[in-house]
Every structure is written in C-alpha cells, then in structure tokens.
Amino acid sequence: MAHRSPDGPEPVLATRRKGLRDFRIYVGVVIIAVWGLAPFYWMVVTAFRDPDYTFDVTPWPTHLTTENFRNALSTSSGNNFPRALGNSMIIGGASTLVALAIGIFAAYALARMTFRGKYIVVGLVLGASMFPVVALVTPLFQLFTDIGWIGQYQALIIPNISFVLPLTVYTLTSFFSELPWELEEAARIDGASRAQAFRLVMLPLAAPALFTTAILAFIASVNEFLLASQLSSDKTEPVTVAIARFSGNDPHVVPYAAIMAAGTIVTIPLVIMVLLFQRRIISGLTAGGVKS
Amino acid sequence: MPVSAGEASGAEPDIAAAGSKPPGRGSGKSGTARRRPLGGRNAWLLIAPVLIALAVVIGYPVVRAVIMSFTKDAGLDENTGMFTDGGSAGFSNYTHWLFQQCPSVTGEMVSCPPGTLGSQFWAAVGTTLFFTVVTVALEAGIGLWMAVVMGKSFRGRALLRAAVLIPWAIPTAVTAKLWYFIFSYEGIANKALGTHLLWTSDAWPARSAVIIADVWKTTPFMALLILAGLQMIPHDVYEAARVDGASAWQRFTQITLPLVKPALLVAILFRTMDALRMYDLPWILTGNNPATRTISVLVVQQVRQGFNSASALSTITFVLIFIVAFFLVKVLGANAVRTQEDQRKWAK
Amino acid sequence: MRLTTRSLLPRVVVTATAVALLAATGCSSDSDSGNSASSHTTDRGPITYVEGKDTTETGVVKQLVEVWNADHPDEKVTFKEQSNDADQAHDDFVQHLQAKQSDYDLMALDVVWTAEFAAKGWLQPLKDSFALDTATLLAPTVASATYNNTLYAAPKNTNGGLLFYRKDLVPTAPATWAEMMGECAVAKTNNIGCYAGQYAPYEGLTVNTAEAINSHGGAFVGADGKTPTVDSPQSRAGLASLVDAYKNGNIPPQAITFKEPESQQAFEDGQLLFLRNWPYVYGTAAKDSSAVKGKYGVAPLPGVNGVGTSTLGGYNVGINPFSEHKATAMDFLRFLTSEKAQRIIAEGSLPPVLGSLYDDPALVAEMPYLPALKESIANAVPRPVTPFYPAVSKAVQDNAYAALKGEKSVDQAIIDMQAGIESAGQ
Q1: By CA distance, what is A255's nearest residue in C?
Q2: How far is A237 from chain B (nearest CA, A)?
Q3: What is the pLDDT, as a whole number, of residue C17?
C-alpha cells in the first residue's frame, strides 16, 4: 500500500532528510503503540499478579499467579461471571442475528433499488443509529416491569436491536453498493429470478461483508451497558454489568485484581478477533463511518 | 492528472447520496446503465421489516415516554399514607426539569433545592456539553495526527492498526473499571505522576479522568475513520505539490487538511452524538460524583424515583440531542458537501 | 435524521403496528394474576422465602429453613435466593408485586425499602390476626418496620455502626468525639490517618451524616416520621464536626473516596487509628492478610457526651399481600423473631433483633463486640421511614458531600438539606 501513502516515495537525493523523517515516524509509531497497548497491558499484568501486590508498580510481570482468574470465575461470592459471559454471547448473538436477518433486505433495497422515499429511509436509519438509548430506559423499564420481562433475555435483546440494526443496515448498504452487481444481472439474463440471483450469485460474494457486519454488530451489542444495567437480573446480566457490579470473596473488599482478571477474560477473545480480522473490521468501520 | 479526486472519493459509497444516483453505482465501468428501473413496491417490502423493527424498539418507547411525561407521578394520600395515582400533569414534569421548579410543602412551586435531581438538570446539561466539546476536540486533533502517522509507510503497519483497535474493542464498562484501577488512590497514575490526587472524587481530577479514559478509548476509532479519508487522496496530488516546492507543512495544510475534511467532519458528527449520550464511563469510573454527572446519569437516577418525571427528562434529553444533531448535520453536512464540490473542481 | 414531515406518515403507521404487537405480548402475562389482596388470610401450605444472596459463612437462611421444615412437613419453606446486588433484588420484588404475583410469600427487605413497599400496598399489615409481639425486640428495629403507625414487617436482623480503634496505640477507646479528636496527635506521631468512616457520595455518606447529626441531637424528620426537622443548631453542630475534622486533616483527604471496602482496607493496612464501620470488620481485620491482626479493639460510636448514635441497617421480612398461604407465612415470621431463630442469625455474625441475645455469654464469647453493638443499637435511630427514601437520602448525601469538600458552608448545606427533604415526594 506504500504507493498510496500521502507523502509517497522520497526523491533519492534527500537521504538525510529521509533519515530524520523516518525517525519522526517511528517516534509517532511508538507513541501510538503505547497508547493502544499500555493500559491493556497493565490490566493483563495486574490480572496475573498476586492480589497482595496489586498496587506494585513494577512494569513487567511479577508475582505470577492464576488466583485472580479463579476468583473471577468463582461463583462462591455471589458473582457468576461464566454465566454473564454466556449471557453476553446469547444477547449479542441474538441481536446480531435478528439485525442481520432483517437488515440484509433493507440494505439490498437501499444499495440496489430506486424508489420514492429512499432518502427518508436512509435518514431514519442514520437517525436511529444516533438515537440516545437513555431515552429508552424509562419507558422500557416501566413497560417491562408491567409485563414481567425484567430479567428475561428478550428484555435485553429487543432494545439492543435499536442500535445494532441501524449499524447493520448502513454498514451492509455501503458494502453492497461496492459489489459487482453486473453478475446478478448476468444471472438474471440466464433466467434466474431476482431472489435466485441474489441467493446463488450475490450472497456468496457478500459473505465477507455479512461476516464483518456481524463482528461489528456483535461488538457493539456486547459493549452495551446502560440498558442492560437497568433491565437485567442476576440471571441475565451480561459481562459489562457483571464487571461493573463485581464483588469479591469478601463483599467488603474491592477485588481490583479479580476485576482486572475478569476484564482480561472478556477482552482477550475480542483482541484475538481484532488481530485476526483487523483489515475487515477497519473496512467495516470506515464503510459505515466515512460515508454517511 | 490521471486520477480525479472525484472518482477517488466515488469509491467511498455514500449511502445518503446513493439514492440520487442511478441504480448500479459502478455503472461507469460496468456499462449496465440500461438496466430497467428496480424498486417501487418491492423495495418497500424489503425495507418494511427494518422500519417495523425500529418502530417497535424506538418509536413505541418514545411515544410511550411522551404520553407518560404528561402524567403525574404517584403521590401519597395524606390520611392513609398510601400511594395514589397522580392524574394529569400538564407540562409540570417539563417545567420541573427545564425551570427547576419543585412543589414545596405548601404546594406552591419553588425553585428546586440543591440535592434534588430537579436542581441538577442544567448542571448535567453543562457537564455533558463540556465533555462532548473537550473529548471530541481532543479526539479529532490527536486522531488526525495518528492518522497521518499511520498513513505513512513503515514496517508493521498492520500490527499498529490492530493495536489501536484494542481500545475500541474493549467494552466501555471494562475500560471504565480499568481506569478506575489506574486512577485509584494507590494506583499507578498517582505513583507515576508522584501525586496524591483523588482522581475519582475531586471535581477537576474526576473530569480529567473521564476525559482521559474516553479519549483513550475513542481516538483510535477517529484516527481510522480519518485515515480512510486520507487514503482517498491520490498520491499524484502530493507529487505535484512537491514538484512545485511546497514544504511538508504546506502540503499538510493545503492538501491533506482540506481533502480529509469530509471524512473528519463525519467522524466528528458521529463522535459528538456518541459523547452526548455518555453514561458508562462517568458512572462506573466516578459513581455519583456531581462533577461528572451527565444527563444520561441523571435520567437513570430518576427512573426509580418516578417513571413519569423520568419520561419527561428522557424526552427532553432526546429533543436536546436531536437539536444538536440537527445543527451539526446542517452545518457540518453542508460544509462536507461544499468541500467535496471544491475538491472536484480543484481536481479537474 | 428523522426530520421531514414526509417521514411522519409511515412512522405513524408502523408505530400503530408496534403498539398492537407490544400490547399483545403485554396482555398475556397480565391475565394469570387474579389474586385479591385481602384473601387467603387463614390458608396454610408451602411458602417461598425470598432474600438477596446469603453471604454469611454459616448459611443462616438455609439453617433457618431446615429447622422450620423439620417441624412443619406440610408447610415447607423454600428459599429463593436473589442477586447480591441490592438494586436488582429491589427490582425483582417490584416486578413480582406489580404483577400481583403470589409466588414470593415472604420478602426480606432492606430497612429503607419497607416504607415504599408499605405505601404501595405491597405488604400485609401486621395487625389483628397478623399481630406480632414485638415487646422483646430492640425498639429501633421495630420502628424501622413501622409506617404510618402500623407495623408492616418483622425485623429479622439489624446492624449498627461501631468504632474500631488501634488498641496498640490508644489503650482505651475514646468515649466522646472530642476525646477522639484529641487522640489524633497519636496518629500524627505514627504518621497514619486518624479517623474515617465512609464519605463517598452514596448511601454510606447518608449513614455517616445521619450518625453525626443524630449524635448531636439533630434529626432528619420529627416524631411523626414526616416533618423535616434537619434545620436545627444540633444538626449544624453534627455536620460541622465531620466537616471540621475533614478540613483539619483528622479525617484524611482520601476518605472522601471511601465506601466500606476502602475504609476497611485503610484500617487493615494500618493506615488509620480509628474507623467507623459495620461489625463485619471485626472478623475481617482478624485475618492473616490484615496488618492490624490482634491490635484492634471495638467500641460504640463516640458522641458528644458519651455514646453516639448509630444508624440502623439490617433487614425486615414482610408478607406478600397476594400470598396464598398467609397463615403459614405469619407463623414463619413469628418463628423468625423467636430466640431459636435469632440465635442462628447471631451465630452467622448478623446482629440479632432480640435484645436478650446481646448478653448471652456463649454468643459474647464468640463475638466480643456484642456488648458494644448493643449499646450502639440501643442508641440507634432508623433512617427516615418514608416511601421517598431515595430522594431523602440524595438530599442528605449531595449536600453533606458539598460541605465536606468546602463547596458550601455547613449552614447552607443544612438549609439545602432541609429544603431537599421537604421537596422529596411533594
């Protein structure tokens, strides 16, 4: 991608200036790397450190132990972190699936079709994506209390759709509009129906886009805290709420180290996902973001 | 110039603009412009599920909140000590927040005393706007710098991009707990700085803590959005400028900045909307600290003190954010379009 | 953006659809709850007892249930354990009661929820055939379960503040606040903090402020339990005692971030001479990880001229008015306040509500803080028993917090507190 770099290749003569420039770039690179990694690193170091040395400032790992992880996963002190992890999977997974299942049709229509009122739909979707979830808390809390839904999964999945769905629609729309739709046309000329053309020809091509959108939607859903903190019970609370409420073996001690371990447990799979799909995630983020 | 900026930015699909274009965006290259018009009723059928879903999860609660906001919260019957329904409230739930009017013991309206939620509305609005302006400004500035650095060619660029995605990927609640630990009294922030600050309690340290944590988490996201915009700038433009003898700073201010402006403005718009609803960070990091109480925190505190009054507050919050969004879209949106048009002219 | 008027029509249509959809789901769960609040007063049968996570080491609730079930094979009690998060437990109750469900027969309520539940008609009044003999129970605990002159719940266990002190540094506990402040010189020479309670802006600050104000003879509300009376010279003196100590450093600056865990941690790290906390610290400070193991004593809170006034914690147990086996539920309440049950509670390190147990030699040998606690609770004042407790508590903590931080004067804080309590629930 070097040829796309804004400053481009240097003239051969300016080697000294190039040296200085390289130096400046690498200082910047180091600063950015430290920015991204240092707090995360500190969380992991603390998570693996004996809780008696939690406030030790030695920058490298010392007093290694897995005790914090055992504490974080233990259910003896009223926490149930494994269950919270499962809940996040269920809530995040269900919201993502629902959003994809209905969002894909709208994205297809928005990317492929011309119709009156398209602007309104686009505006609605964008507006919904900026909608403050806090405005949903009161009516939903009251409604779900009335119908006995507080602490049930649907009470957490349904509100999540309010922000996962717009995100899904606009990310998919921008992905779809970049697909080579002439292939679909070709399939239709060969006698396929519109649905067949979409399913047999376009869907396989769109699979990476769907996958990326699913990752983004899932991460957004798992990140949600406000609604979950108000609408969940101990049985259905996701990891964000569990971490915020985490209490230790002794209910009266702040279990910093165990919280850092719990944070590490949540973060590691996400970090692995980010490392594996870095390119896709960035293209997905910018697809939805740069172009509204 | 072989590549026009117009075509370069045409590669960034613009879903708002999508509607204005003929079907099949790549029509130039693929030659499918003869395609018969698609859409109409079928399009609405495909879109209906999304609209219905949004109506259920957003429209219905909003309508319900508006209706509730005109009902009084249950009050006590003086004789029995039991709750009775409040009846119609008119606009009193709204004046309660907007003019900070509370009923006194004698029943007349007085200004809400300190220590009631009603007295904290405008302070919370101020705090929210303050956080929004400061974090978005910092994020845009630092993000732009990061994007420029990340746009250069160096080894391990992919790794660096993955690294900056980490703060974005960590759930905000975990981020808040992480910084809560870093900023605890005995934590590494105080030890590294040699200070004895009460990061989560004192007003300015607490505000700084929230800002630092937020900027840490979201600047990389901003940087990546800006970077995507940067990469749309054709390399030839720089080449030409260099030939003309422009310095690096001139190239930045005269080429990079104007060309990246649309991407930057959109990123700012998205971030502003996000910052206005900030809840997780201030709440988990600093708890019930008045210095960091945003509107969202206020709404959640009110929910258990009275649904109907809370409904009025969340409706006000919604309208407030809506107004800000409206102005931003008008101002920034117009700005972005104008810049894009300028670029096109300029590139030809 | 959803701005244009053109977008209005489709929205109205879909909203209507949505309303229909949600209404459909809503109706189905309402229909199965046809209980009337006045029935089943003499009915017996199995019941469910609901309480938040039982964190006692001995498993108090489990023991209570086992003892009861052994004697009542036809009226067995099942323990339903809620979350260990108070808000979640509260919301769980609200939800079941709002739907008039009968499945939670007995509910263990934090003392500060009792009035709210009573005023909403969610507790069976304990009068007539439901009368409970409270003569042997500690009076303040009964007051905490009484709303509008009616008893609505049975006190189950209580809690009171205690003063923990470093007996290796000060041989005897200070009897008064002034004496304690005088001993702060000892803390200074040892280079540790002198005194701390809990001053972060949360319920704990309300408790600490209440103790300071009550100890000086002030009160949040008058004898009727309603009229706000906090604007008094006594209250000013009480709040001023905390504010002055914070200003002159006798209360260390970081104490403004303290909740129970942080303050306990500071004491156990040897960083505090005196600590105000709940009785549980007596056990945790004796652990190996504590730097003050064997070096601390416990005493009632110091007041102006002697023992100070503690704020009451603890739980009350009420009967669900929609319960189908209220007679059994009432019997279980009587059992809960019996000596047999109260002893099980005390053995789990929860302060009992039965006065006589505090002098019980066997229990005192096990929990040497009991005499101090008895004194503390005998002098205790319940927090205002009002359905609007959250608003009252907020008025107290926000203004006390501002006064501690020097953002407003003690006078102003008290005036604002009074106004804030007045406007709560108007």
Answers
A1: C261
A2: 13
A3: 44
Question: Nearest-CA neighbor of C377 among C310, C323, C424?
Answer: C310
DSSP state for residue C137 in the 8-state scheme: B
pLDDT at A204 over 50: yes
| DSSP secondary structure of B137-176 | HHHHHHHHHHHHHHHS--TTHHHHHHHHHHHHHS-HHHHH
What ipTM describes this predicted complex?
0.88
- The shortest CB-CB distance from A127 to any of C2, C53, C55 is to C2
Q: Do B235 and A3 touch (CB under 8 A)?
A: yes
Instruction: State whether B38 and A240 contact (CB < 8 Å).
Output: no
C-contacting chains (≥3 CB pairs under 8 Å): A, B
Q: Taking CB atoms and an 8 Å limit, are B287 and C202 in contact across chains? A: yes
The residue among A273, A217, A271 whose CA lies nearest residue A39 is A271
What pLDDT band is residue C32 in, cutting at 50, 70 and 90?
A: very low
Question: Tens digits of per-residue pLDDT, A43-67?
Answer: 999 999 998 888 888 899 999 999 9
Contact A143 C85 (CB under 8 A): no
Separation of alpha carbons C421 and C425, rounded Å: 9
Q: What does DSSP say about strands C193-196 and C272-277: parallel, antiparallel, or unpaired?
A: parallel
Cβ <8 Å between C405 and B80? no
Å between C45 CA and nearest CA of chain A: 25
**Can you give the pLDDT at residue C24?**
38
Q: Quick: pLDDT tens for C178-202.
A: 999 999 999 999 999 999 999 998 8
Per-residue model confidence (pLDDT) at position B344 = 54
Largest CA-CA distance found in chain C, in angstroms, rounded:
81
- Give the span between the Cα atoms of B283 and B296, in whole angstroms: 9
Q: Nearest CA to B50 among C67, A287, A104, C388? A: A104
